[in-house]
């Protein structure tokens, strides 16, 4: 209805076993900002059910766009049941070049923190060069740096 959207899904586990899942999502767009809330739950039978709640807030302001995310999850792995959060942003430096940034983490000992920077340069004709560098780190372990560069062709 207008700027309001709702979605729901139900997945039944194979062979009538445990693992049925349902999700519901609602979003509202007001001007250049969209707020969304989602909830999902998996029936794990005799074990504790897994569930997740996520709130996002995103928008566009001229050449800049960004999204904030915060959520809470309860999963079978105790070290991953927690609150998580993240932010992503992009800035159009020119009509052909965009800089991107993303960060995500959580409060669980087993959560993986990710941070990265990227660039996209449109060469025209459906061809763009894309590259990025980032670090992934789980708990107190050393982080792992990764980089990627390539071309994308859209026909």
Overall description:
The structure is a single chain. The protein has strands spanning 4-11, 21-30, 33-42, 50-61, 64-74, 82-92, 97-106, 112-124, 127-138, 144-153. 0% of the residues lie in helices and 69% in strands. By secondary structure, the protein is an all-beta fold.
Helix content: under 10%
Major β-sheet strand ordering = 1-2-3-4-5-6-7-8-9-10
Q: Tell me about the biggest sheet?
A: 10 strands, antiparallel
How many β-strands, per DSSP? 10
Rg over C-alpha atoms, rounded to the nearest angstrom? 19 Å
Net shape? globular
Structural class: mainly beta
Strand content: over 45%
Distance between the termini: 34 Å
Descriptors:
155 residues, mainly beta, 0% helix, globular
Task: Reconstruct the topology from this structure.
Layout: E1 4-11, E2 21-30, E3 33-42, E4 50-61, E5 64-74, E6 82-92, E7 97-106, E8 112-124, E9 127-138, E10 144-153
Antiparallel strand pairs: 1-2, 2-3, 3-4, 4-5, 5-6, 6-7, 7-8, 8-9, 9-10
């Amino acid at each position: 209805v207008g700027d309001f959207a709702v979605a729901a899904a139900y997945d039944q586990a194979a062979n009538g076993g445990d693992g049925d899942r349902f999700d519901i999502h609602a979003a509202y767009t007001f001007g250049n900002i969209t707020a969304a809330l989602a909830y999902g739950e998996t029936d794990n039978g005799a074990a504790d059910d897994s569930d997740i709640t996520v709130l996002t807030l995103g928008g566009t302001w001229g050449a800049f766009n960004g999204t904030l995310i915060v959520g809470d999850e309860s999963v079978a792995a105790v070290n991953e049941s927690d609150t998580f959060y993240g932010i992503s942003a992009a800035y159009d430096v020119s009509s052909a070049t965009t800089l991107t940034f993303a960060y995500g983490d959580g409060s669980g000992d087993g959560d993986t923190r990710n941070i990265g920077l990227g660039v996209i340069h449109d060469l025209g004709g459906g061809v763009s060069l894309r590259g990025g560098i980032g670090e992934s780190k789980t708990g107190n372990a050393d982080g792992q740096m990764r980089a990627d560069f390539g071309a994308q062709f859209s026909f």
